[in-house]
Amino acid sequence: MTTGPGASVYMPPEATAPAASNIQMSKYDASVDIFSIGVVSIFTIGEIFPCDPLAPTFADEKSGVVVARTELQRRSHYMRNVNEQLRACGQLRGDHPLIRLIQQCLQNFPSKRPGIREVLRLLEEARAGVRDEGSERNKRELVRALQTQPRNQNLERVLRDLVTENAHLQSRVQAKERELATAQQQLRRNVSLKDDYVAQ
Which residues belong to any copy of the Protein kinase domain (predicted)? Predict the structure, then answer.
């Protein structure tokens, strides 16, 4: 993790809210990076850079009332590009793991975003789907789509890159967990020493 929330296009709502101008590092955790994975996935799979201006709210057309706007709503036109790319590769089906991954990562509330293990599971599921997708007909359709749209040949590479990036994130999370465990042990030792001192 970095020491700041990063570029605004990758920031989750909690980092871009007006009150977040003095974001406290205690509130900046892995869920911010998980959100960024959703944005990067849109960019790499949809082949378009998601650069909407920050606009977390919108006015309801009928009533004129300002309503909270979810990140999925704000970025829905980018999701159409993702769907088109997956369809061109013969991969679009009702509940594709990459669509679920993006939808889960872009949740407005950090507590609703998946952990890194769930992100990796969905990436592996998508990778297996690309590798093992059914019949000869599907394979022929995939070959035809790749021949007619060469830019879609990058899908497998994109998935590998995402898996690699997420492996790095997981290793950073594990390092932070080890640091926390070490700090907890030190705290217990300090409390024990204090108790021993008080007892004397």
Answer: 1-127
